[in-house]
Design goal:
Blueprint lengths: L4 E9 L2 E10 L5 E9 L8 H14 L6 E5 L5 H9 L3 E5 L5 E6 L5
Parallel strand pairs: 3-4
Antiparallel strand pairs: 1-2, 2-3, 4-6, 5-6
Length: 110
Amino acid sequence: QESPAVTIKVLETDSKPQGFISFASFPENPLATVSDLCISEGARSQGFGSMLLRHTEKILSSTAGVQTIVIPVVKGQKRAIAFYRKHGYLYTGTNIGQNPLFAKKNIAKI
C-alpha cells in the first residue's frame, strides 16, 4: 500500500498565523481524512475555519479517486460538531476511541 499524501495548510493574516488544517489522502482511495482544523482563540468566528475547510475540499475534490472526506471530532466538542454540520458533514458513527465521525460524500462535485 502506498503512503498517504499528508498536507498541512496554514492561514496567515498580516504574517501572523491564524489557524491550520491538516489532511491526508491515499492514492486511488475514495476516502480522505481531515485530522486537524485549529483556529487561534482570538481569530475564531471570523470565517477562517470555513475558508480552510472550503480550500481543503477544493484540493481533495480534484485529487484522483477521492469521493468522501471523513473528519473525526473529539467527543463533546459541540462547537466543532455544529461547524461541520453547517458545512454539510453528516454523522456516520464513531471511531475506535468513541469519537464521533462526520463525512461529506460526493466531493468531486464541489
